[in-house]
Structures are given as structure tokens and as C-alpha cells.
Amino acid sequence: MIDSFCVPLVLDCDPGHDDMFAILLAAAHPGIDLLAVTTVAGNGPLDAVTENARRICTLAGLDGTVVAAGADRALLGDRRTAPNIHGKTGLDGAPLPEPTVPLADEDAVTVIARLLEESERPVTIAATGPLTNVATLLERRPDLKPRIERIVFMGGSAGRGNTTPLAEFNVHTDPEAADRVLRCGLPLVMCGLDVTHQALATPEVFERLRSIGGLLPATLGGLLRFFAGTYEKVYGMPAPPVHDPVAIAAIIDPDVVRCVEAPVAVELAGEHTRGATVVDLHGVTGAPANVQVALELDSGRFWDLMLDAVRVLSDQGALSD
Ligand code: BDR
Ligand code: CA
Question: Is any atom of ligand 1 closer than 6 Å to the C-beta of 170?
């Protein structure tokens, strides 16, 4: 934890199987005060991922969660989704309840701006989808930058990609937004594929989840099995990487990840490399470091945090069978 207080947090996401775990960890952990869940088109169209966020909150008993919808396309107007990984709904694999958690009347950027204005302490933004909403906020309300503690995002890679050979999905889906965020001058933490590919849902993780018992873990298990199936089919990975909650775990407990400070830029023009993050680990460009890049995960610590969160929610008010 940053200090002994709760970290006020906005989670901007595109649920998405792994975003779902990010929401649950942020909502359950006592070190985080989850001010809002905001959504952005990414794994599915905006309507679908927003409904998914509301369904997940409903299932987990997170009735008071503020959910607000944001951008339905990238800054340049592209709409890219990932049905090959997350299915048609963005969250295929198990039935979810009808959402009872309401959708805010205001859009995501307006809601985040208001929360920044109202919070007694600077707010951390966790972004686990394309960075469209965050970039729009920074452009629309530069006066609020001092109200942002830091931006911790899942995206990018210091090595290879998962959407093109060098580009990771969240950055590739809106490279211009990622570029704006990387240049914004605020403290940034990048949890890219380097570290999230160490957050694997192994058979042991499935078993620990199942053994919690009840509707929430059973539903999460079904969804995670779907995700494991698509990862196996598309990437030949025997255990799927559960990317997004790594960003939340890094906020809760900085010792979960090992970071190095480095200059990071996004390739916007390359014929084969658009959307790739160029991470200068050896300082060869001489550019100033702008990002803490997470490279190693303490996966034992990570899964303990994640599964404890599921247990807490299961005990505290998640829907039961
Ligand atoms: C990222 O892309 C999405 O499919 C996941 O939710 C994650 O945020 C991984 O590249
Ligand atoms: Ca995501």
C-alpha cells in the first residue's frame, strides 16, 4: 500500500474476463476505496462491456458501485474488439444475473472529473482497457492533473505483443490515447505483458477458486474456463494470463511486482509496429524515464490477494445459488 490509508481509486476497464477480476479485487480489498468503475469499448462494444461491469457488480453484491460508460471508439474512430478471446458478449462462459446496479446518467469522463474535484486526496486511476477515457480526461481537464496521484495501466509490452507481433491489445486498440497518457507527465506504472504473462490461472488456481464454494467462485470458474479455452486455441498457452488484476495488485502491494524506470513511447506510424510500446530498458535513447515498467510478478502473492478477494466477496453479500 502507498500508506496506511485507503487508496482512492477509479477503475477504467472493458470487461472482459480479466477486467472482471480487477473489479473484484479493487472492490474487496480494504486498502482501496473504489470510487467508480468506468467503461470503455475494447474487449467488446461499449454497451456490452458496460452491461458486463454492472452484471459482475450485481453478482458480487457490490450494489453501491458507481458505474459510468465512456468512449465507444478509439480517438481516431476505430472500433476494435476481441471476440476471439472474450467471446461475443465480451464475457462469455457462464450465465450472469440481470444487472441491478444502475448506470450513471453522466459519461465516464464527467464522472471521473467530478470525483477528482471532490476527493480529499489525489486519486489513483487504474486503466485496464484502451486508454481512450483517460486521454480524453487529460485533454478536457488538464487543470485536474494535480488531483491524480498516478495512473497504473495494464497495457503494452517491453517485448512481444499479443495482437500484432509487437503490439499489445489495449495499446494497439487506441495508440493515440496511449501516446497522450505516456506523455502526460504524471507518475505512470505500466503492467504490460512482461508481467501479466506471469499471472497464469494454473490448475491449482482453478482448484483454489473452486474450493471457496458458492455461486460467485463457481461462476468465475466457468468464465475463466472459457478464457482458458480461447487462450489455448489462439496462443497455445496451457494456462491463461489473467492480466488486469495485476495492475490492482501492484497498487495494493508494490512488492507484488518489480519495476524498472524507463522511457516508454508508442509507435504510431510503423507499417508493422503501430501500437507497439517501445521500452528503452538500457537507456540507449537518452530520453528521460517516464514510466515504472513492471517486469516481474510475485505470482504467489498475487494469487493470494486475488483469491482472498473472491472469498471476502463470497462471504459478504455476493448472490448465492
Ligand atoms: C488486455 O487486453 C484485453 O483482452 C484484456 O482484458 C487485457 O486488458 C491484454 O492484452
Ligand atoms: Ca481489459
Answer: yes
Cα end-to-end distance, the chain, whole Å: 34
- Percent helix / strand / coil, the chain, rounded to 5: 40, 20, 40
The verdict on residue 285 lying in a domain is: yes
Give domain status of residue 2, yes or no. Answer: no
What is the distance between the alpha carbons of residues 36 and 113, in angstroms, rounded to a whole number?
Answer: 11
Number of folded domains that form the chain: 1
Question: Could you give the CA distance from residue 290 to residue 95 in angstroms, rounded to a whole number?
Answer: 42
Number of other residues whose CB lies within 10 A of the CB of residue 185: 9
Residues 6+ away with beta carbon under 8 Å from 276? 157, 161, 164, 166, 167, 171, 172, 266, 267, 270
Catalytic residues: 243
CA–centroid distance, residue 90 to ligand 2 (Å): 10
Rg of the chain over Cα atoms, rounded to whole angstroms, equals 18
Quote the Cα angle for 176-34-312, to 5°: 125
To the question of pTM greater than 0.85 for the whole model, the response is yes
CATH classification at residue 48: 3.90.245.10
On the 0-12 / 13-18 / 19+ scale of CB atoms within 10 A, 176 is: middle
| Sequence-distant (≥ 6) Cβ neighbours of residue 125 within 8 angstroms | 9, 10, 12, 112, 134, 148, 150, 151, 152
- Helices 175-182 and 132-140: crossing angle in degrees, nearest 10, is 50
Q: Containing domain of residue 202, as a range?
A: 7-316
Tens-place pLDDT, residues 61-102: 999 999 999 999 999 999 999 999 999 999 999 999 999 999
The residue whose C-alpha atom lies closest to atom 10 belonging to ligand 1 is: 169
- Is 1 contained in some domain? no
